[in-house]
Design brief:
about 130 residues, mainly alpha, two-stranded antiparallel sheet, 6 helices
Length: about 130
Amino acid sequence: MTNRARGLLTITIQGEEINLLPTFQAMMEFEEMAGISTFEAMLQLKEQRAQAKVIVAAIWAGQRGYEADRGRMDLRADFNSLGEKCHREGIATIAGHAFKFLTFALSSDADLAAAQEKLGNAESGG
């Protein structure tokens, strides 16, 4: 099941909560769907020049990673349907979620755990 240090993300698109899990398989599926490497996608997102397909592919892959982790691939999102939801929510808004997902995908478990611990300390005032 889910390695919490792996960076489970929960986002909301059009009022629906969507869980994203940046597994290795999800990263590979992202690269196949987007047609570019994860590193190139990060650069494009940072420079605000990523295509909508790249942005949606990150969310789609993350959702597939989460569903696969639970053995429910039959519940995965249809890429075009998810793309329409993302378009209605605003691709610029979704781009931030995509950037965070890909950052988590490229980070080590140790780095993610340290970041989560630091965030927890900041939230508790410590």
